[in-house]
Amino acid sequence: MHYSPTTSTSCRTPDELSREAYDSIVDHLPAMRRRVYDFIKSTGSRGATGDDVAAHFGRFGTINGRTKELHRMGLITPIGERKTRSGRMATVYVDAFLGEVA
Question: What's domain 14-95's architecture?
Answer without folding.
Answer: Orthogonal Bundle (1.10)
